[in-house]
Design goal:
Number of domains: 1
Shape: globular
Strand order of the largest sheet: 1-2-4-3-5-6-7-8
Structural class: alpha/beta
Number of helices: 10
Mean pLDDT: 89
Low-confidence stretches: 9-20
Largest sheet: 8 strands, mixed
Number of strands: 8
Protein backbone atom coordinates (compact mmCIF):
# COMPACT_ATOMS: atom_id res chain seq x y z
CA UNK A 1 0.00 0.00 0.00
CA UNK A 2 2.81 2.38 0.92
CA UNK A 3 4.66 1.51 -2.29
CA UNK A 4 1.54 2.27 -4.34
CA UNK A 5 1.11 5.61 -2.57
CA UNK A 6 4.78 6.43 -3.10
CA UNK A 7 4.63 5.77 -6.84
CA UNK A 8 1.39 7.74 -7.11
CA UNK A 9 3.00 10.75 -5.44
CA UNK A 10 6.11 10.32 -7.61
CA UNK A 11 4.00 10.23 -10.77
CA UNK A 12 2.12 13.37 -9.73
CA UNK A 13 5.40 15.13 -8.96
CA UNK A 14 6.88 14.19 -12.33
CA UNK A 15 3.71 15.29 -14.12
CA UNK A 16 3.77 18.65 -12.34
CA UNK A 17 7.46 19.06 -13.16
CA UNK A 18 6.93 18.40 -16.86
CA UNK A 19 3.88 20.68 -16.86
CA UNK A 20 5.96 23.51 -15.40
CA UNK A 21 8.85 22.87 -17.78
CA UNK A 22 6.51 22.97 -20.77
CA UNK A 23 4.47 26.04 -19.88
CA UNK A 24 7.23 28.08 -18.20
CA UNK A 25 10.10 27.20 -20.50
CA UNK A 26 10.23 30.73 -21.93
CA UNK A 27 11.42 31.99 -18.55
CA UNK A 28 13.98 29.19 -18.41
CA UNK A 29 15.30 29.77 -21.94
CA UNK A 30 15.26 33.54 -22.46
CA UNK A 31 17.17 35.72 -19.99
CA UNK A 32 15.38 38.90 -20.96
CA UNK A 33 14.32 42.11 -19.28
CA UNK A 34 11.99 44.81 -20.54
CA UNK A 35 12.75 48.50 -20.93
CA UNK A 36 10.18 51.32 -20.70
CA UNK A 37 9.04 52.45 -24.14
CA UNK A 38 10.24 55.97 -23.33
CA UNK A 39 13.69 54.77 -22.28
CA UNK A 40 16.41 56.96 -23.79
CA UNK A 41 19.51 55.17 -25.04
CA UNK A 42 22.76 56.99 -24.40
CA UNK A 43 25.84 56.26 -26.50
CA UNK A 44 28.77 58.40 -27.54
CA UNK A 45 28.62 57.22 -31.15
CA UNK A 46 26.05 58.46 -33.66
CA UNK A 47 23.02 56.18 -33.80
CA UNK A 48 19.39 56.02 -34.81
CA UNK A 49 16.71 54.13 -32.92
CA UNK A 50 14.60 51.78 -35.03
CA UNK A 51 11.08 50.39 -34.63
CA UNK A 52 10.18 47.78 -37.26
CA UNK A 53 6.74 46.16 -37.49
CA UNK A 54 6.32 42.43 -38.11
CA UNK A 55 3.40 40.93 -40.04
CA UNK A 56 1.64 39.96 -36.80
CA UNK A 57 1.87 43.52 -35.46
CA UNK A 58 4.82 42.99 -33.14
CA UNK A 59 7.14 45.98 -32.83
CA UNK A 60 10.87 45.19 -32.88
CA UNK A 61 13.30 47.69 -31.45
CA UNK A 62 16.78 48.18 -32.86
CA UNK A 63 19.72 50.56 -33.03
CA UNK A 64 21.60 51.68 -36.12
CA UNK A 65 25.13 52.88 -35.33
CA UNK A 66 26.55 54.95 -38.16
CA UNK A 67 30.12 55.27 -39.38
CA UNK A 68 31.26 58.37 -41.26
CA UNK A 69 32.30 56.50 -44.40
CA UNK A 70 30.99 52.97 -43.85
CA UNK A 71 32.69 50.05 -45.59
CA UNK A 72 29.46 48.09 -45.17
CA UNK A 73 27.01 47.12 -42.46
CA UNK A 74 27.04 44.46 -39.75
CA UNK A 75 23.66 43.00 -38.75
CA UNK A 76 24.40 41.94 -35.17
CA UNK A 77 22.18 39.30 -33.54
CA UNK A 78 23.08 39.46 -29.86
CA UNK A 79 23.32 36.84 -27.12
CA UNK A 80 20.70 35.69 -24.68
CA UNK A 81 21.11 37.76 -21.53
CA UNK A 82 20.55 41.51 -21.73
CA UNK A 83 19.03 43.96 -24.16
CA UNK A 84 20.07 46.96 -26.23
CA UNK A 85 20.99 49.20 -23.32
CA UNK A 86 23.89 46.81 -22.66
CA UNK A 87 24.43 45.17 -26.05
CA UNK A 88 24.66 48.59 -27.65
CA UNK A 89 28.27 48.78 -26.44
CA UNK A 90 29.15 46.16 -29.07
CA UNK A 91 27.55 48.30 -31.72
CA UNK A 92 29.76 51.18 -30.60
CA UNK A 93 32.87 49.03 -30.47
CA UNK A 94 32.39 47.60 -33.96
CA UNK A 95 31.43 50.86 -35.64
CA UNK A 96 34.44 52.66 -34.16
CA UNK A 97 37.00 49.90 -34.67
CA UNK A 98 36.06 48.76 -38.16
CA UNK A 99 34.18 51.69 -39.78
CA UNK A 100 31.14 49.55 -40.56
CA UNK A 101 27.61 50.64 -39.79
CA UNK A 102 26.11 48.31 -37.18
CA UNK A 103 22.44 47.37 -36.86
CA UNK A 104 21.64 45.52 -33.63
CA UNK A 105 18.17 44.55 -32.46
CA UNK A 106 16.22 43.10 -29.54
CA UNK A 107 14.20 39.90 -29.82
CA UNK A 108 10.57 39.70 -28.72
CA UNK A 109 10.29 40.24 -24.98
CA UNK A 110 13.69 41.92 -24.78
CA UNK A 111 13.97 45.64 -24.07
CA UNK A 112 11.27 47.55 -25.95
CA UNK A 113 10.47 44.77 -28.44
CA UNK A 114 6.96 43.37 -28.24
CA UNK A 115 5.07 40.38 -29.60
CA UNK A 116 4.31 36.76 -28.79
CA UNK A 117 7.27 34.42 -28.64
CA UNK A 118 6.77 31.78 -31.28
CA UNK A 119 9.79 30.25 -32.91
CA UNK A 120 9.02 31.01 -36.56
CA UNK A 121 7.86 34.54 -35.81
CA UNK A 122 11.00 35.24 -33.79
CA UNK A 123 13.32 33.89 -36.48
CA UNK A 124 11.55 35.82 -39.23
CA UNK A 125 11.97 39.05 -37.27
CA UNK A 126 15.63 38.85 -38.27
CA UNK A 127 14.61 39.17 -41.90
CA UNK A 128 12.96 42.52 -41.10
CA UNK A 129 16.30 43.93 -40.03
CA UNK A 130 18.10 42.32 -42.95
CA UNK A 131 15.64 44.04 -45.31
CA UNK A 132 16.33 47.31 -43.51
CA UNK A 133 20.07 46.84 -44.11
CA UNK A 134 19.46 45.83 -47.72
CA UNK A 135 17.57 49.07 -48.35
CA UNK A 136 20.70 51.00 -47.37
CA UNK A 137 23.54 48.76 -48.60
CA UNK A 138 24.13 46.30 -51.40
CA UNK A 139 23.97 42.72 -50.21
CA UNK A 140 27.67 42.17 -50.87
CA UNK A 141 28.34 44.80 -48.19
CA UNK A 142 26.24 43.10 -45.49
CA UNK A 143 27.79 40.94 -42.77
CA UNK A 144 25.43 38.88 -40.63
CA UNK A 145 26.81 38.27 -37.15
CA UNK A 146 25.34 35.88 -34.58
CA UNK A 147 26.53 35.63 -31.02
CA UNK A 148 25.44 32.61 -28.94
CA UNK A 149 21.60 32.58 -29.14
CA UNK A 150 21.88 35.10 -31.96
CA UNK A 151 23.49 32.45 -34.13
CA UNK A 152 20.09 30.83 -34.65
CA UNK A 153 18.73 34.08 -36.07
CA UNK A 154 21.86 34.67 -38.13
CA UNK A 155 21.85 31.32 -39.94
CA UNK A 156 18.08 31.52 -40.48
CA UNK A 157 18.53 34.86 -42.22
CA UNK A 158 21.59 33.90 -44.25
CA UNK A 159 20.17 30.68 -45.69
CA UNK A 160 17.46 32.81 -47.35
CA UNK A 161 19.59 35.74 -48.46
CA UNK A 162 22.95 36.51 -50.08
CA UNK A 163 25.06 38.69 -47.80
CA UNK A 164 28.82 39.07 -48.01
CA UNK A 165 29.68 36.84 -45.05
CA UNK A 166 28.52 35.14 -41.86
CA UNK A 167 30.17 35.33 -38.44
CA UNK A 168 29.17 32.97 -35.62
CA UNK A 169 30.54 33.49 -32.12
CA UNK A 170 30.07 30.95 -29.31
CA UNK A 171 27.13 29.45 -31.15
CA UNK A 172 25.37 26.14 -30.34
CA UNK A 173 24.50 23.36 -32.74
CA UNK A 174 20.91 23.38 -31.47
CA UNK A 175 18.91 24.34 -28.42
CA UNK A 176 17.76 20.75 -28.04
CA UNK A 177 21.33 19.52 -27.74
CA UNK A 178 22.10 22.15 -25.12
CA UNK A 179 19.02 21.07 -23.14
CA UNK A 180 19.96 17.40 -23.39
CA UNK A 181 23.52 18.11 -22.27
CA UNK A 182 22.48 20.32 -19.36
CA UNK A 183 19.52 18.17 -18.22
CA UNK A 184 20.13 14.60 -19.43
CA UNK A 185 17.49 13.26 -17.02
CA UNK A 186 14.70 15.27 -18.69
CA UNK A 187 13.25 14.16 -22.06
CA UNK A 188 13.61 17.60 -23.64
CA UNK A 189 12.62 16.20 -27.02
CA UNK A 190 9.09 15.71 -25.69
CA UNK A 191 8.33 19.19 -24.46
CA UNK A 192 10.79 21.70 -25.92
CA UNK A 193 8.75 24.22 -27.94
CA UNK A 194 11.71 26.23 -29.21
CA UNK A 195 13.71 23.99 -31.57
CA UNK A 196 16.30 26.54 -32.63
CA UNK A 197 19.03 24.86 -34.68
CA UNK A 198 22.08 25.76 -36.73
CA UNK A 199 23.26 22.41 -38.08
CA UNK A 200 20.70 22.17 -40.90
CA UNK A 201 20.97 25.86 -41.74
CA UNK A 202 24.75 25.97 -41.96
CA UNK A 203 24.76 23.00 -44.32
CA UNK A 204 22.80 25.16 -46.78
CA UNK A 205 25.04 28.23 -46.54
CA UNK A 206 27.78 28.71 -49.11
CA UNK A 207 28.99 32.28 -48.40
CA UNK A 208 32.25 32.87 -46.47
CA UNK A 209 31.70 31.76 -42.88
CA UNK A 210 33.80 32.50 -39.81
CA UNK A 211 33.38 30.81 -36.44
CA UNK A 212 34.83 31.98 -33.12
CA UNK A 213 34.66 29.84 -29.97
CA UNK A 214 36.40 29.63 -26.61
CA UNK A 215 38.00 26.31 -25.74
CA UNK A 216 36.75 26.52 -22.12
CA UNK A 217 33.18 27.60 -22.87
CA UNK A 218 31.09 26.08 -20.06
CA UNK A 219 27.73 27.20 -21.49
CA UNK A 220 28.08 26.28 -25.17
CA UNK A 221 30.83 23.63 -25.24
CA UNK A 222 33.69 24.07 -27.69
CA UNK A 223 32.60 20.95 -29.58
CA UNK A 224 29.48 22.77 -30.81
CA UNK A 225 31.59 25.27 -32.71
CA UNK A 226 33.80 22.56 -34.17
CA UNK A 227 30.78 20.56 -35.36
CA UNK A 228 29.27 23.60 -37.05
CA UNK A 229 32.57 24.23 -38.79
CA UNK A 230 32.63 20.65 -40.05
CA UNK A 231 29.01 20.86 -41.22
CA UNK A 232 29.57 24.17 -43.02
CA UNK A 233 29.44 24.02 -46.83
CA UNK A 234 30.87 27.52 -47.19
CA UNK A 235 33.12 28.20 -50.19
CA UNK A 236 35.46 29.81 -47.68
CA UNK A 237 35.43 29.06 -43.98
CA UNK A 238 37.70 29.64 -41.01
CA UNK A 239 37.59 28.62 -37.35
CA UNK A 240 39.14 30.80 -34.65
CA UNK A 241 39.62 29.04 -31.33
CA UNK A 242 40.26 31.26 -28.30
CA UNK A 243 42.47 29.18 -26.02
CA UNK A 244 41.19 29.41 -22.45
CA UNK A 245 38.18 31.50 -23.45
CA UNK A 246 34.85 30.93 -21.73
CA UNK A 247 31.45 32.08 -22.97
CA UNK A 248 31.38 35.73 -21.93
CA UNK A 249 35.03 36.69 -21.71
CA UNK A 250 36.41 36.27 -25.23
CA UNK A 251 37.12 39.98 -25.58
CA UNK A 252 39.48 39.68 -22.60
CA UNK A 253 41.76 37.68 -24.91
CA UNK A 254 42.35 40.81 -26.94
CA UNK A 255 45.14 39.62 -29.21
CA UNK A 256 43.36 36.48 -30.36
CA UNK A 257 39.74 37.66 -30.26
CA UNK A 258 40.22 41.01 -31.93
CA UNK A 259 42.85 39.46 -34.16
CA UNK A 260 40.10 37.19 -35.49
CA UNK A 261 37.69 40.10 -35.99
CA UNK A 262 40.43 42.16 -37.60
CA UNK A 263 40.88 39.41 -40.16
CA UNK A 264 37.13 39.18 -40.84
CA UNK A 265 36.57 42.93 -41.16
CA UNK A 266 39.91 43.96 -42.69
Amino acid sequence: MRARRFFRVLLIAITVLFFMLYFFQEKLIFYSSKLPQDYQYEFKSEFEELFLTADDGAILNGLHFKAKNPKGVILYNHGNAGQLDTWGKWGELLVNRYSYDVVIWDYRGYGKSTGKRKQQLMLDDGLLFYSYCKNLFKEDLITVYGRSLGGFFATHVVKQTKPKQLVLESTPVSLLEIANEAYPFIPANWFLKFRFQNMENIAEISIPTYLIHGTDDDLIPFGHGKRLFELSKANKKQFFSIDGGNHNDLSDFEEHYFGALDEVFK
